[in-house]
Design goal:
The chain has 87 residues and is mainly alpha-helical. Strands 1-2 form a two-stranded parallel ribbon. It has one domain. The longest helix is centred in the C-terminal third of the chain and has 18 residues. The protein is globular. The termini are far apart.
Length: 87
């Protein structure tokens, strides 16, 4: 897993849809990798763990909304705080 975390393409594959408030489906085995990239406290309702075909159907239904808008405000606040600290 350390090799995946160090890989920029892997980090981008996880962080880009997160930053753009996309719904994200994942397997339980990927949770450690996801939290290593975006942080332990950032798994929200826009992340849907796929264990069954019902979970997959839930994910497809959620994607009809295009974005998990609840995350957008969280990401913007974090960016503003980070930018304030950079100044």
């Amino acid at each position: 897993m350390l090799r995946l975390i160090a890989d920029s393409a892997t980090r981008d594959f996880i962080s880009d849809p997160f930053a753009h408030s996309k719904f994200i489906a994942y397997a339980e085995s990927a949770e450690r990798l996801i939290t290593a990239v975006i942080g332990d406290n950032n798994l929200d309702r826009g992340f849907i763990q796929i264990k069954t075909t019902d979970d997959a159907a839930l994910f497809v239904k959620a994607c009809r909304k295009l974005r998990f808008w609840g995350r957008k405000s969280q990401v913007q606040v974090k960016e503003q705080v980070q930018n304030a600290h950079a100044m």
